[in-house]
Structures are given as structure tokens and as C-alpha cells.
Amino acid sequence: MIALVMAVLLIALIxxxxxxxxxxxxxxxxxxxxxxxxxxxxxxxxxIPVGSVQSLSLSAIPLFILMAHLMLMSGMMDSLFNAxxxxxxxxxxxxxxxxxxxxVGFAAISGSSTAAAATLAETTSKRMIDEGYRPTTxxxxxxxxxxxxxxxxxxxxxxxYAVTAETSVGDMIVAGLVxxxxxxxxxxxxxxxxxxxxxxxxxxxxxxSWLTKIKAVLEALPIAVVFLAVVGLxxxxxVTPTESAAIGCLVAALLxxxxxxxxxxxxxxxxxDSVKSSAMIFxxxxxxxxxxxAFAQTKxxxxxxxxxxxLPVPPIAIMLxxxxxxxxxxxxxxxxxxxxxxxxxxxxxxxxxxxxVIWFGVFVVLMGEIGLISPPLGLNVFVVARATGRDxxxxxxxxxxxxxxxxxxxxxxxxxxxxxxxxxxSR
Length: 427
Fold this sequence. Notes:
By secondary structure, the protein is mostly helical. The protein contains 22 helices and no strands. It has helices at 2-15, 20-35, 38-52, 60-74, 76-88, 94-110, 113-130, 135-145, 156-165, 169-175, 177-192, 210-220, 222-235, 241-258, 264-297, 300-309, 315-330, 335-352, 357-371, 379-388, 392-415, 418-425. The termini are far apart.
């Protein structure tokens, strides 16, 4: 009964637009007060915050966020899109392909889905519309590709999951690469397949000479340097994720300086924005630990796992039920909140039915990405709509086919989990 009260209170607080961290914290404190006492709840609040954010692995998160802001300062997104457009622009759908490639490249240096969507919208959506793409296609693909920032390493969300699940941050970061590329391919297919019926949906762009192509690719090469500095060093075990994040910040800062974009105001803004984003994430971490402690006292999680284990259904059926649950949660909550609230409860069940903790991290992040382009709270859709001046409903409609493609990929990961884990297993 107390667990139900906590859940209802949490949903109610979120519904009235209370910030997620305070909604989670309020529901957790209410649960503690009902089970123990108000004094005991305040005692937990005194003890948990410091311990919940003392993990060394969490220090990688603000560093990756700062690296993303520095890469935005460098203007590399323009170079990345230009390289893709010169390479693929002349073929049907070339600018759309370039937008997808730019999204993959930016995801590899930002780790933030929202930042990727906002930057892509300003850089590519308007260009696609000018070239004759339907606005739903131009905005929908950008909102969807922007979600790859949560999957392709270095991903802030994957780091957060690893800390929450108490697993290897390095393995978790590396694990996102192959699934991220598979998702990108699925999004590309969802964009290009309608052109088989109506070629006008995929206009041709401008033809570029080989010299122009080579020059554009060379200008975008520094992104590969940043990616190798971060992910490559982690994969080969040369540095820890936190050390690689610090190296990434240094390389990104050098790139900003070399390109002549380093200013005092810009640097201060990057640091301040990084602190704000980090504070939001850490606030959710603290609140989730309080909520998790209160929920654990109800013994509901253990009982639920035991009950589900006894059901006469195969593991795949359970995972498909979880898929539906996460899709619904994505309608109302962001990725950080979903991971913080559900992973401590659901992970023991997932491991019991035979799925790997690393695999589950990729699965949960993918489901969170679907939520970023699903109504009513699809954050990437609102970001793209604001950046392009298009109607939000129009962008939601444009993103729908890509959300379906991502659900299909999630089902494929359930059926063939080794696809997700083979890269970290090869370390």
C-alpha cells in the first residue's frame, strides 16, 4: 500500500510540473515518513546525499558535459555536416544522409541528445527544407538522430547507468558504439524507404568536386581525434573513463583555441552551463537514492521479482512487457529519472532471466531515446521545433516512423543480445 502511495504521489507531482528531482525526493520522503517517522526520514536525508554522489565514476559526467560545450564552441558541427553533404549530397537523399552522418559524428563528441538535436536542427534541418525535403522529414530525422547522443560513446547517460547499476563505466561506454551505429542505420532506412514509392521525397543536393570533398573531410577529421582520445583510450584500458573525459576536455579546448573561437565569455558560459546540467543530474541521483531506500523498505521489489520468476512465460515475453513499460515511462519522464527510478528495481529481475547488466543498460538507454521523440514530453521534438520554427505536432508526426524503427531495433536486441555485448566482451 505504501509503495502505491509513493508511486501515485510521484506521478501527481510530475503531472503538476514539479521538477523531477524534487518530485522523486518528495515521494521518497513521504514513503519514509509513512513507514518509519518524519524524524527518520530527515535522518536518511542527512546521510544519503553525500554518499550517493561520492562515486569517483560520477566525476566523468561534468567533464563529458564540459567537453560537449567546448565542441559546440569549436564549430565542428558545421564542418561535419559540410563533409557529409559534399560526400553524399548529389545522390538522392544525400543531404538527409549527411544529416544522419553528422548526428553520428556529433554524438561521438557530445554525449548529449538534447545538445545534438539543437545543433543539428540549426545546421541541417533548414538546409534540407530549402533543398525540397518535406518539413516532417527534415525535422523528424534530425530529432531522431539527435537521440544518438545518449547511445554512441562517450555518453553521459551510459555513465549514469553504469554508476546506478554498479557496473564497469568503461565497458558501458564501449558497449554503446555498435548499437548506436545499428540504430543510425535503422533511422537511415526509415528515411530512405519511403522514397521507393515517391522519389520526390528525397531530392538531390549539389555536386561537389573531389578536391572539395577531400578538403571538407580533412576539416572534419579533428572529430575523429577527439573520439579516439576519449573512447579509444578507454577501450584499450590505457586510462579510466574519468581520465579520458579530462583528456577529451583538454583536446576539445585546444581545438577551440586552434580554430580561433576561444573567448572568455564563451568559456565562462560553457562552464556555467556544464555546472547547471551536472547539478540537475546529481540532484536526481540524490533524490533517487532516497526514493530507492524508501521503496526498498516496502519489500515490494523483492516480492515482484519472485512473482515474475514464477510466471509460466519465457524470458522474451517478460522483456517485451518491460519494453512496453519503458515506452510508457518515456512519455512522461526523461532518461536520467527513468534510470534512477527503475534500474535498482528491475535489474535483478533482468539478470535472473538471463540478460546481462551491460546489455540492459543499452536497452534502457534506447527506450529512453524513444521517449525523447514521443508525445507528450518528447524533449528533442520541442528543441527541434523551437530551433526551426516549425509546429510541434508536425515534428512529432515526422519523428513517428523513426520511433517505430527504434522499437524494432529494441526488439532485435532482445532476440539477439550478443549483438550488444560482443564489443565490451572483446576487451
